[in-house]
Amino acid sequence: MKAPVISSWFGRGQVEASPDIESAALRSDRFRLEREGEWKRLEAILVRMEKGGLRRIADDDLIALPALYRTAASSLSVARETSLDAATLAYLEALVQRAWFQVYGPRMGFVRWLRGFIFGGWSRAVRELWLDLCIALFVMVAGAIVGWLLVAQDEAWFYRLFPGGMMDPRQPGASREELLSVLKHDEGAAGLAGFAAQLFSNNSAVCILAFALGFAFGIPSLMLLVHNMAVMGVLLWLYNGQNLVVELAAWLSVHGTTEIFGILLSGAAGLHIGRAMAFPGKLPVLEAAAAAGRRAAVVMVGVTLMMVVAAILEAYPRQLVEDTNTRFMIGGTMLVFWLSYFFLYRPAAPERAA
Amino acid sequence: MSVRGISPAQRDEKRLRTLVTPEGLALPITIAARTARAGALVIDFMILLFSLIVVQITIYYIARGLVQASGFDLDAMSSSVLEFLGICMAIFVFCAWYGYFLVQELGPRGATLGKRIVGIRIAARAGTRLTPEAVIARNLLRDIEIFYPLITLLILAVLAERGEPIGVLGWVVTGWFALFLLFPFFNRDALRAGDIIAGTWVVERPRAKLAKVLSVEGAAAAGGASEATGVRYAFGEAELSIYGEKELQTLERMLRDSPPEALAAVHATICRKIGWDPGAGDERAFLEAFYAQLRAKLEADLRFGKRKADKFA
Fold it and tell me: If we measure between CA atoms, which residue out of A340, B7, B25 comes closest to residue B16?
């Protein structure tokens, strides 16, 4: 006889017998009628959880949830072996699946995740990408050198690489004063906030592009890095012609140490995914890509934050501070800050469920 | 279990997968149809576009009000207010674009509004927990899959309209767009590029109402006796061993939601098969009694480890 054994499994939460259990002709229907109270309670809790998070649920219900989930799961496996009622089976399968999504769903909300991210998660993810960071850095330096060498050999390259229009004073053959004038900004603080917001959405779009392009085995990410840095090499060459490299470097460093670092990180993140797909190692390609994608996504959220910082720096201090030394100091401070945050700040990793 | 895959709406077998919970229970899970996903995307995109337009118009009216308040004297007007409006707009666009998908998919439903409307949700592929990182990764990639190529194509179209040479770039971008758009058609699980990177997939949201118990009502409960005629339907061993589980569940489905005419047809078929003389007017009671007794027999066999999948088994 199976019924007594089964009911002893569920003995804990004695369900009040619904009046018509005895009237059910089939044993499997009696099985169902005895338990459907618990199933419906589970369903009610799930509906509330799906609607609005945990706050609206009574503590009793929340404590009962794992037990109810397991009850439903074992009801399902018993029903599969003893019942031929397709509707009940379909209901139980759907119920257990919904409960599974909640019981094993995302454990933390966005805020808690963000806290863990800022205090350790981000810098850990960056350090996990060290090899890709080295490759991306190498590619960026190479890009700048290539840009410089190309223009140094043939000035026609300048017009191909440099995005500025005809009105831009930054042209080969420009005078020292013209070049210097770009590095200054004398209109005060008006209009700078809008400028910053625009810079931010523009720059973070470039970074997200560099990351997302990693999907094609990382090669387009690297090409994007080379192209961006070649433009910088061209600029350096232009200012070098008038011995203004130090001034240009100071002007760039204010926001560039943050922004170029951010571009470096997003290129490395893209490369990380591309590398995982091209050389998945022992894992299947899909799993390797997924693992790399999750690590890289953490870095990318951080890059977005860096772009906010960079845009503010680019709009305010860079335009308002004109002194070369002060500019260098701001840029250098930011660089030291990022480097120490990423590589020296190593809080213990919280233990995580897989 | 494969026999049990039958549910009221016949599932597409090709989209059926098995998910093993940590308790070791195998659950059937259905991959969302590609059409459903496309529909969800269109709905989400419409919602975003609509709300962006509304915000834009609001900001436009605020700005116009400011211009009028200053008596159309642009110099007298505080430029920082307009600037503030511009910043609000830029930040709103950014947050709406990325936040809309992120916040909703991280919620307990694991779906954006569009996905909820078409009844699908995202889930981690390996049956593990869905993590914030995965949701972020799959949403960042949506940009290069759809929106960047679309915007680039739009810009190129405008350039071409003005007579500027764009060369093969248009074809390259179109190819790019087509590649990512058709990506879900090149793998079994209908994964898009973002799903691959994030280790997620999109599945149908389980939805089932607990149907009523069939064996407590009508002739099934009364031991085969019909309320209308008082006749007692009792079937013998030979008559009940013709059909199997598949037919039983088909009959269950029909008893739950078929009209009387369809039941009459089934009644006639069953009578012919078991060699009874089909009467008329009491089909439902007959079928209820037959269902209850067939199920009782098959379930009794089940307890002894004997399964009869269908009438051919």
Answer: B7
